[in-house]
Amino acid sequence: MTHDNLLYELSKKFALRIIKLYSYLINENHELIMSKQVYRSGTSIGANIAESMNAQSRADFVSKLSISLKEATETKYWLELLHESDHISDTQFDSIVNDLNIIIGTLVNTIKSTKQKERNE
User: Which long-range contacts (CB under 8 A, 24 or more apart) does 114-117 make?
Assistant: First the structure.
């Protein structure tokens, strides 16, 4: 499995978790503001990864993945706020942030290796 396919699958599973989290936050906690923010940024990660799969160039590929990385960083921020404001438990937070950290690490490695290939050509 290539990095972009792995990223696609990881980010899609993560987006599905975010959708379920959003539903939980709306229905159980009646939290409307942060839940919408984490929903937008958390699902945007995978949308940009999906776009990168049809990039027109390496630079376009790196650009799309860089946007995904920014969205992942924003998502982590919203998850931290939800956790620290007691909207999600330690267990929920640790589990979802662990998945997010894997995505972030894979994005960073893919971006770095793609840029390195570009420099070596």
Answer: 114/58, 114/61, 114/62, 114/65, 115/62, 117/58
Instruction: Tell me how far apart the alpha carbons of residues 89 and 113 are, in angstroms, rounded to a whole number.
Output: 36
Q: What is the pLDDT of residue 3?
A: 54
DSSP, res 44: H
- What's 61's DSSP letter? H
Please tell me the distance from the alpha carbon of residue 84 to that of residue 93, in angstroms, as a whole number: 10
Helix or strand run (H / E) with residue 28:
none
pLDDT for 39 beyond 90: yes
Give yes or no for a contact between 92 and 17, defined as CB atoms under 8 angstroms apart.
no
